[in-house]
């Protein structure tokens, strides 16, 4: 067998795990007969190994082994409560097929697509010990075998080459102390480009590989020999600091503070930090803004999340066209009916909630927040509107639900009493309450007789120009034509929901998906409320 073919399957591929002290290590050699289970995330594998002593069930983190391969295993036998005796593998290596039977067995195992047992037998019978050299160096000769075309011959050679490359890459990664699990992730992401990427910019791992942060990438870079003042290292470190700040509740940092933290993290002096920040901006990872005469730096993801949160809050802040004297009159009616007496601040809060679609009500314990909210609920329900309550904690949600339930019971009793009175009192189109009912807030439902209208009025689907205008106004960087084409092809349906009724929301979701932003996060970003409200005021006054 040639030395070249030994590089395909026959080079030793050793993966070491920390062994348990004080245990006897067993060595077993055999063929992988059948892979029962494999976790693609961490490489945990259950398989049957066949050798001269029979079949052995083996378990362990063995990435990229295939059926038919000959393995030399080290480990200890353990007794599983359900599956019985198993070899828990602590180290392994792939051995070269030692004879024609071994070569035929590997090729016929299914490891190479397009070769079954019969075809493997023909190939080995034709080329014998030269089989692997022929596949590697002269794959076109496989077409001499009945049933193999030139195209199929090249596909077989390609698969063998890929397996060789994979093993080379895994050995290369482990040379730098990278674990088996992480090496598998890196190879799956980069393939044969792994050598080029790690030697040029190992900090890409922090961007591309889940579970790898700056510190892990920095350790790998140090082993590879990347200089501590590398531009890649400084940029990656700055971005890492911004991400860590988010965990502290800050979605941006002043440039001065970012520089101080970078010096501590990287252990070097940074002369021109703006250069590196601008490089990150060019890569669309960060956004620079000026606030109070100082430069602040956002991770781009959170900047757009904050901006869109402000935009959505502004969209929610619709004004009610009801005259204020009418609001006062109706609120007094609710107070009298529910026997509630509001203090001036509570009264003002309820009036403001009627005037505007968005209101923040704050106050310490015992200041009357629940009473104020209950009055708001009573007012809006008296207008025939549906109320939905949400709370950030389970305790608050229970309190709100309890208050809502009590209000509903009182309202039901009130309606029963009112219905009895109305049976003897005729109504008139000139009735004052009938005239008042024309003053209702926009984009809300009204009663039609005894039926509450909850179904929205479906608007027509937008044109490309409509979407383009909305994107320009709101700062969404999407392709309007692609958005419209995609939704027209699906009849503006998302599952069973007709989304043209709220196509602007669909635009926002489309933008979030393209930019890797969680839409739910954008809607509920509580830790930036103060900055958001500042932006809302700017939008309103602008």
Task: Offer a few descriptive terms.
elongated; 542 residues; 5-stranded mixed beta barrel; 3-stranded antiparallel beta sheet; disordered C terminus; alpha+beta
Give a brief outline of the structure.
This protein has 542 residues and is an alpha+beta fold. The protein has helices spanning 6-10, 100-107, 117-127, 131-137, 150-174, 180-190, 194-200, 204-208, 214-224, 231-247, 255-266, 273-282, 300-316, 324-338, 344-355, 369-382, 394-422, 432-436, 464-474, 480-489, 503-514, 519-523, 529-541, and strands at 15-16, 26-38, 44-51, 54-61, 70-80, 84-95, 253-254, 286-291, 294-299, 447-448, 451-452, 493-494, 497-498. The radius of gyration is 35 Å and the shape is elongated.
Describe this structure in words.
Helix content is about 50%, strand content about 15%. It is an alpha+beta fold and about 550 residues long. A 5-stranded mixed barrel has the order 2-3-4-6-5. Strands 7-9-8 form a 3-stranded antiparallel beta sheet. The N terminus and C terminus are likely disordered.
């Amino acid at each position: 067998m040639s030395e070249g073919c030994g590089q395909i399957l026959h080079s030793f591929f050793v993966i070491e795990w920390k062994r348990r002290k004080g245990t006897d290590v067993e060595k077993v050699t055999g063929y992988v007969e059948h892979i029962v289970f494999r976790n693609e995330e961490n490489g945990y594998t259950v398989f049957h190994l066949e050798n001269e002593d029979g079949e052995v069930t083996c378990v362990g983190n063995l990435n990229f082994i295939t059926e038919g391969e000959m393995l030399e295993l080290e480990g200890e036998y353990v007794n599983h409560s359900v599956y019985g005796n198993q070899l828990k593998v602590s180290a392994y290596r792939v051995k070269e097929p030692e004879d024609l039977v071994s070569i035929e067995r590997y090729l016929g195992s299914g490891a190479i697509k397009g070769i079954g047992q019969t075809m493997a037998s023909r190939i080995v019978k034709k080329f014998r010990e030269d089989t692997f050299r022929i596949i590697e160096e002269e794959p076109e000769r496989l077409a001499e075998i009945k049933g193999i075309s030139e195209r199929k011959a090249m596909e077989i050679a390609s698969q063998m080459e890929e397996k060789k490359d994979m093993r080379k890459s895994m050995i290369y990664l482990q040379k730098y102390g990278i674990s088996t699990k992480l090496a598998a992730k890196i190879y799956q992401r980069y393939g044969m480009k792994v050598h080029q990427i790690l030697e040029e910019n190992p900090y890409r791992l922090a961007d591309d590989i889940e579970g790898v942060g700056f510190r892990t990438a920095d350790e790998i870079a140090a082993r590879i020999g990347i200089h501590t003042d590398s531009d890649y290292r400084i940029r990656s470190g700055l971005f890492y600091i911004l991400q860590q700040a988010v965990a502290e509740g800050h979605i941006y940092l002043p440039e001065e503070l970012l520089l101080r933290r970078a010096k501590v993290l990287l252990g070097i002096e940074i002369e021109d930090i703006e250069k590196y920040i601008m490089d990150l901006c060019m890569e669309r990872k960060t956004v620079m803004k000026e606030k109070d005469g100082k430069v602040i730096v956002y991770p781009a993801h959170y900047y757009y999340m904050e901006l869109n949160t402000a935009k959505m809050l502004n969209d929610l802040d619709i004004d009610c066209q009801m005259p204020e004297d009418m609001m006062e009159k109706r609120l007094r009616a609710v107070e009298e009916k529910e026997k509630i007496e509001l203090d001036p601040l509570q009264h003002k809060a309820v009036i403001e909630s009627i005037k505007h679609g968005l209101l923040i009500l704050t106050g310490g314990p015992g200041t009357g927040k629940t009473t104020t909210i209950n009055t708001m609920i009573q007012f809006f329900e008296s207008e025939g509107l549906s109320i939905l309550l949400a709370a950030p904690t389970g305790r608050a949600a229970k309190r709100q639900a309890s208050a809502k339930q009590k209000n509903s019971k009182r309202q039901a009793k009130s309606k029963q009493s009112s219905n009895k009175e109305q049976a003897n009192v005729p109504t008139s189109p000139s009735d004052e309450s009938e005239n008042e009912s024309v003053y209702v807030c926009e984009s809300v439902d009204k009663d039609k007789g005894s039926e509450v209208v909850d179904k929205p009025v479906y608007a027509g689907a937008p044109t490309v120009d409509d979407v383009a205008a909305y994107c320009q106004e709101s700062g969404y960087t999407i392709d309007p034509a692609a958005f419209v084409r995609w939704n027209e092809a699906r009849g503006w349906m998302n599952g069973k929901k007709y989304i043209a009724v709220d196509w602007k929301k669909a635009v926002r979701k489309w933008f979030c998906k393209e930019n890797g932003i969680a839409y739910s996060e954008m809607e509920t970003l509580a830790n930036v409320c103060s900055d958001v409200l500042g932006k809302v005021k700017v939008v309103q006054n602008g």
